[in-house]
Amino acid sequence: MAPQSERADAARNRARVLAAADELFRTSDPRAVTMDDVARSAGVGRATLYRRYPDVGSIAAALLDEHERIVQERLMGGAPPLGPGAPPAERLAAFYAAMVELLETHLPLMLGVDAGAGRLRVGAYEFWSAHVRSLLVAGGVEEPDALVDVALAPLAPEVYQHQRHVRGLSPAEITTALARLAAGILA
Amino acid sequence: MAPQSERADAARNRARVLAAADELFRTSDPRAVTMDDVARSAGVGRATLYRRYPDVGSIAAALLDEHERIVQERLMGGAPPLGPGAPPAERLAAFYAAMVELLETHLPLMLGVDAGAGRLRVGAYEFWSAHVRSLLVAGGVEEPDALVDVALAPLAPEVYQHQRHVRGLSPAEITTALARLAAGILA
DNA sequence: AACACAAGTGGACAACACGTCCAGTTGTAC
DNA sequence: GTACAACTGGACGTGTTGTCCACTTGTGTT
Known about the structure:
The structure is a homodimer.
Chain A: H1 8-27, H2 35-42, H3 46-52, H4 56-77, H5 88-115, H6 123-138, H7 144-152, H8 157-166, H9 171-185
Helix pairs in contact in A: 1-2, 1-4, 2-3, 4-5, 4-6, 5-6, 5-8, 5-9, 6-7
The structure holds a DNA duplex.
């Protein structure tokens, strides 16, 4: 993760920044967190932040990274139905369920990523795209390309937040709806 | 639309602001348009803008309003399959096709709305929600609430832009994918 | 036609966030 | 212990925001 030869003070500040940012994203509006906020809260200067992160979104992405990688590894090598082995429709439903779990646990961070560059331009989105695309192909869908983004759109943090906190839906209800979507797409 | 007793100069400035904003949204990055830009480009002061519009998003929403109302009226009272009469699955597909048309024609404006308050908090979203919900109910879906936002998520301007200009997909391909989605949801 | 009032207007203002720059400091290798 | 490179922190200039207030301009009345 960190460069091989990272100075001790740099590592210390990196940890401070990440801890402070995590706190800020959780306790205040994730879309309103600024670079200034993080710098002040972490007790470091602004240039120290900009050295590694171009914007707040990338800080949120860094915090999210390890959690997303766990899901990614379970997708590629884990047990079915999330991992390989189950029918595509079931794998897609399992993927949705895993993503709802991620959204429920780390919604502030995921909203924070969106506030920056936008989730469509983030590396992880390409991974999810490739996975869903492979499921569509395995399911016999002729033109999977346009369907990929359609299938991923409901996982936008904004949408999940709206469902949870405006509509008042439960994670279980959302998961059920997405399971129905999975079945509908890969009938 | 305008208050009954709107002063002549106010009406003139309203028109100037809307024309200038429309131009700006189309010719530059819709997410980078500022209140300053619009004010300067329209030749009015900043307070004149803030009198009627709290942010750039609401200006874009005002410009979009009449175009959206046309679709809304066709949904409620137009000919099938967009209007009443056709089976729910076909009506949903027709709705998707109409929205793709709207996105294709007015993408800059719709991205501009998103840059402001966000499309989920805009009045029109509630209308689309109610319409899709009624289609789901008519189609016999037991728990339509969570599916509504799922079904509308692929219509996010961000998603459409990504499909068109990053993936290089055509409006027809996107419409086809959404038609499949409609069939899958309301099988 | 002149008046009075309310509605409308424009620019100034302070606060804030951004991204960069540079001089000083602190680790690390020799 | 010394020298170098990496790292750091705060200051700086720019641009945007939202509000405030004095002025202007329409409109209805006498």
